[in-house]
Amino acid sequence: MTSTTTAALELRAVDMHYGFVRALDSIDFQVSQGEVVGLLGDNGAGKSTLLKVMSGAHRPTSGTILVNGHETTFHSPSAATAAGIQMVYQDLALVDAQDISTNLNLGREILRKGPLGWLGVVDTRAQRKRAEKELDRLGVRTAAMTRPVEMLSGGQRQVVALARSATRVTGESNGVLLLDEPTAALGYEQTQQVQALIRRMADHGIAIVLVTHNLPLAMDVCDRIAVLNRGRKVADLPTAETDNDQLVGWITGARASMFA
Ligand SMILES: Nc1ncnc2c1ncn2[C@@H]1O[C@H](COP(=O)(O)OP(=O)(O)OP(=O)(O)O)[C@@H](O)[C@H]1O
């Protein structure tokens, strides 16, 4: 990244302690609009903790968080969402019995006047129209809007969940999506589908942090990759400048830190 670009989200010297456990040790990290940054590391390396700090679920023990260059403190996940930063959880949090459109519009329903003239009936048609437009913009082709999401495949459900998160962060700025293992439960084709959507979302200017244990996925979809090892960042470089063996070396600790 050039010095003229302001990161959408930046962490400076972030520490996170759980009692005596130092889960994050002086982490510097940044992601810019339109960029996909992979966050790799072995079990217990600190990836989830870092995502929790970025999503407002945890307050860091020390360090600074900047959103679009402005220093910020998140007191809750909703404060982070209001700042355009949204965590997408593995378990998706979709309402199974409801259709795609209802799921995409959850929490931001369009209301119209009911039979007695009071505002308060969900405008299903307007909601469907908006959902179609938003999916279209992301280049997503899904089953009919009226299909309950419980009838979708794992990959389609993940696509709906990602699209829903994207609609929540794309306001005036393009927002930041934090993805925790979005393909963990998916087969090959479904992973391809989700991978393509991640790329398209970045092409729309969304900044994306992708935590994954799937190295080929990270190599394919990420512009940049950072590796954590026991709470420290040991590598951070453009994907084009690294390879599978190097990354495995940093993940396992066999390779010395770039920053030592
Ligand atoms: N709530 C907690 N209380 C105490 N220690 C914790 C807590 N959450 C995480 N830790 C510790 O912090 C360290 C980092 O854990 P974290 O879950 O962030 O790693 P991770 O890279 O996400 O691992 P995984 O790939 O297994 O999910 C580990 O040593 C873990 O045991």
UniProtKB/TrEMBL annotation:
Residue ranges annotated for the ABC transporter domain, each copy included:
9-255
This protein's UniProt keywords: ATP-binding, Nucleotide-binding
A GO molecular-function descriptor: ATP binding
Asked if the Swiss-Prot or TrEMBL record annotates the protein with the keyword Nucleotide-binding, the reply is yes
Check the UniProt entry and state the signal peptide residues, or none: none
> What SMART domains does its record include?
AAA (SM00382)
Q: Do you know which PANTHER family this protein is assigned to? A: CARBOHYDRATE TRANSPORT ATP-BINDING PROTEIN MG119-RELATED (PTHR43790), SUGAR ABC TRANSPORTER ATP-BINDING PROTEIN (PTHR43790:SF8)
- For this entry, the protein name equals ATP-binding cassette domain-containing protein
Q: Which organism is it from?
A: Jatrophihabitans telluris
